[in-house]
Automatic annotation (TrEMBL), chain B:
PANTHER family: DESICCATION-LIKE PROTEIN, OS05G0151100 PROTEIN
Organism of derivation: Arsenicibacter rosenii
Taxonomic superkingdom: Bacteria
SUPFAM superfamilies documented for this protein: Ferritin-like (SSF47240)
Name listed for the protein in its UniProt record: Dessication-associated protein
């Protein structure tokens, strides 16, 4: 079986596709997958600090790690027996010793998370799930702004025109089908998102 | 039966009648919501107002959008005035506030466009909040503190209305797309105030802006117990909503 990049998959569990499921459970599993990705990333960043990481940066990255771990463990518990398994994650092309590489990857994950939650809200049927997603997405947006500020201090980047449409003042909203290919790059198992609601 | 008695009777069965009528004031049917003012309002106007207040009861899409528009008017005028105040915003921070202003202006235009003739008019604002912040446009720390309060309130206000927009996917998504922009603004402004980008427990000023933010359980899940994190830390990971009534209580002092 081939991985998302066409290469043969290796590693434990790597040859097992993961079906996110359907309905609200599917969307929550989709969020759980994204939170697994983010949490794993920041766990590695904090465990292997890039050279020159300032005390402020370390504090920020540890906070974000804790938030993403909290999100991940929340979804795992909330989904219970319907939860997808722990995913096999790696970060091809990311240099954990490079500040630029880490912060740019973090920016990608945070902006992607914001867009994913924004796009998934309308796919949820249960008001409680929408409320929970709302509580998480603004924290992801706070992360995105702070990471962007670290990359480009005292600029407009925290809510830059590349991510917030200057004409409407709207952040991005992406459907699972648009988010999955980027997320899949970092996940060894194949994610099956075809049963997720689309409207 | 005169109007005062009618209102009194309604109040006996509905203690929130004056809160409900506050909603009407945002439609500029009254300039004040004191009982005295209500008692002298023309009965025909009152009847219409009550019908509207109850029929909409804060949950229709139009009502949510007008609530959002009122907050966006507040923010947009705040940043426009701040940027116009000479010597207030240090040079290195003008870009970031200009970026925020641009978004708030765009939100106003977007919501007004969506609402058309149903859009509420812009209220007159008093950014000193009746004298609580007399230096709001002359002292940058005050300005920045009020900006943080507005942004964090905005995040919580949109969050609190999401469920009321579930019947309209397009509007819900746009509201979410505004909501996350307010959160970006909030995080950046918080840094100016030497605060973390995320809300820690109930820390912050004014206190009403942060009421309930200390929640560490999400639904029935004890996240602190699962992760070994402190409840304070877990509270950072979940932003909490505010009800419309809570938001109006925060915003009302800023309306002249």
């Amino acid at each position: 079986m081939l991985g998302p990049d066409g290469a043969a998959r290796t590693g434990i569990g790597a040859d097992v596709d993961v079906n996110l499921g359907s309905g609200d459970v599917g969307i929550l599993n989709y969020a759980y997958a994204l939170e697994q990705l983010e949490a794993t990333f920041y766990e590695r960043v904090v465990a292997n600090p890039y050279s020159g990481m300032s005390a402020m940066e370390r504090s920020i990255l540890m906070d974000i790690r804790d938030h993403e771990v909290a999100h991940r463990e929340f979804f795992k518990a909330a989904l219970g027996s319907a939860a997808i398994p722990a995913l096999a994650i790696d970060f091809p092309g990311v240099n954990f010793n490079s500040r630029d590489s880490i912060l740019q990857t973090a920016r990608t994950f945070e902006d992607l998370g914001v867009a994913a939650y924004n796009g998934a809200g309308q796919l949820l049927a249960d008001m409680r799930n929408l409320n929970t997603a709302g509580k998480i997405v603004s924290v992801e947006a706070r992360h995105a702004a702070i990471i962007r500020e670290l990359l480009s201090p005292n600029s407009r980047a925290f809510a830059g025109d590349d991510v917030v449409d200057p004409a409407t003042g709207l952040d991005k909203a992406m459907k699972p089908g648009e988010v999955a290919p980027t997320a899949q790059t970092f996940i060894k198992q194949g994610l099956i998102a075809s049963n997720l609601p689309t409207m | 039966m005169n109007l005062q008695n009618i209102l009194h009777e309604i109040e006996q069965v509905d203690g929130e009648v004056y809160d409900r009528l506050k909603h009407v004031t945002r439609r500029h049917m009254f300039s004040s919501i004191t009982k005295k003012a209500l008692s002298v309002a023309a009965p025909a106007v009152m009847a219409t107002a009550l019908n509207k207040a109850y029929a909409q009861s804060g949950s229709s899409v139009t009502d949510v959008l007008n609530f959002a528009l009122t907050l966006e008017y507040l923010e947009a005028e705040f940043y426009n005035r701040g940027l116009a105040a000479g010597g207030l915003i240090p040079a290195q921070y003008r870009d970031l506030f200009d970026q925020i202003r641009k978004h708030e202006d765009a939100h106003v235009a977007l919501l007004r466009g969506a609402l058309g003739s149903a859009a509420v008019a812009k209220p007159n604002f008093d950014f000193t909040a009746k004298g609580t912040f007399p230096t709001v446009f002359t002292n940058f720390q005050t300005f920045s503190a009020v900006a943080q309060a507005f942004e964090d309130t905005g995040v919580r206000a949109y969050k609190g209305q999401a469920a009321n927009l579930m019947s309209n996917d397009a509007v819900l998504t746009i509201a979410l797309q505004i909501h996350s922009v307010e959160a970006r603004h909030a995080a950046r402004v918080r840094m100016l105030n030497n605060a973390k980008g995320w809300i820690v427990g109930m820390e912050g000023f004014p206190g009403a802006v942060y009421a309930g933010e200390q929640a560490a359980r999400e639904r029935e899940v004890n996240v602190a117990g699962l992760t070994g994190q402190t409840e304070m830390k877990v509270s950072e990971a979940f932003d909490e909503p505010l009800t419309k009534e809570q938001v109006l209580a925060i915003a009302t002092p800023f309306i002249a």
